[in-house]
């Protein structure tokens, strides 16, 4: 038989698909696959003249998805009758999350999706539901050889939480370019995230404050552009401000230093009239800039005021000042119709503060440890007062070159579970950049994990998540990316066994010690005790590099910058382990020959050979890594703070270069067979 019946072709296609059904992130509320497929070659879509700009954006998104997946442009139908897409919107407007949804039962984002052999039918409550249905279609598209098709399916879907957010740090580390922020928003839209919290200390332009944010922040025009971009994708860009603490970037300036309660401190002094005069100005500007109905005002970690009250000035009542300031801020923001959110961690210092929280302020419980006891320590006081709340875990990436994977997965899972059990209003996943060095891109995997969990009410299986995530996001190189993520997680696990001891219990992870002098007695001893862990960390990060380099050779061009950043991340992890291992190897090589065997058997050659010496190894990698790091930085961030990190490479290079010169000079000044009487540390005193 030369030709197959079309019905048989459909059955064959569906059979192949049925054996390999896609994992959908987030998982829809209900889904039923039916026999048959919709072939995507040559289809046409009709855009009614009455379509709103939100509808047009959603439909154009679908056209782009089909073109990307099939390689064929979607035709424009002259009428609805000949078009493959049929959709209906029940309610106009309501494009982003609203305060009214706090009461529960919102159907704003609901949708139904029916795909048959000749039609895509979407019924949505609003254009948000239409857009989310299209994001689901993105994942349903299947390619088999040259054929691209959709399965016949019936689906109903709605989120378990009305508010699903990511908090991005724009204060501590590198400042992402506007283009990178838009890439983040596009990425988060894939997982149906609907809030993007713009964490700001003084990294936004403010009229009348010309030095605030100058070349170290965003202009108001840029912020407006970001807000509009988010709104198109049904994502509310929520201002996350600091109107009490975390204002050192302002208060270190002589012009504003008198507004602080400490000496060039971190916190404002609410007792000074000039403070609230300034805040009234700021609040007016921020509310004019951000149309979001919500505003997060921080109010966390106001330790400085408490320390001064406890140690220096008994006249200061730090708890009363905290309540006074929050009451003022809430009342001022209420004038502009804003719903205020504030963190609850100061409950740890003021145990009864929840019962005195200003009316209508929504407490936000943050806890970044994978520990139910710690979560409940902040949750229980809020529950006792029967207050509606948000819950906020974090990607544990600020303390490591690559996020601590299992720690993050479990923290997100426990916070979401506690939130769902106690009817949280919403879920916010924090992404911090405190040490400046780590790129944010390695956190994307975990940002997706939290966003997906917030929609479906429970997190995906962490054991298989990176595999399925890679299949969705990097179909051309899914296996390589999945393995790279796993190797990076393992490398960080081994580094975590070696470093992170000298951080006074703070969750700063391995990165604080990663640039320490590896020749110090403490670190040489530590390296000896953890030599195998350092070796395993190198091996795993090298394996990750191999996978990423292979992925780079055949990935979609839009992913090259991301994968390059991941390669640099893997190289940094390798280097962190190498510098400690090489310091020990150099000392051992010298001491074993000179002191133990009393024999100069080419030890200087091994350490300082101009091409292949141990010291030259590190100098080579430091120099090359600095260049690669700078290149990747500029694909993600503005130049601000880049030199803070690049200077670390310069100082690091200097350590090894100084040793190289010292050892060579010692060789020149002594006969080739000379045997040293001192250890490497004693003789050369390695230091920066």
From TrEMBL:
Keyword line: Glycosidase, Hydrolase, Signal
Catalytic activity: Hydrolysis of terminal non-reducing N-acetyl-D-hexosamine residues in N-acetyl-beta-D-hexosaminides
E.C. numbers: 3.2.1.52
Enzyme class name: hydrolase
Glycoside hydrolase family 20 catalytic domain segment(s): 162-368
GO cellular component: membrane
GO BP terms in the entry: carbohydrate metabolic process; glycosaminoglycan metabolic process
Record: active site: 301
Annotated Beta-hexosaminidase bacterial type N-terminal domain residues: 22-158
GO molecular function (one): beta-N-acetylhexosaminidase activity
Range of residues in the leader sequence: 1-18
UniProt record similarity statement: Belongs to the glycosyl hydrolase 20 family.
Protein name in the entry: beta-N-acetylhexosaminidase
Organism: Dyadobacter luticola
The organism's taxonomic lineage, starting at the top: Bacteria, Pseudomonadati, Bacteroidota, Cytophagia, Cytophagales
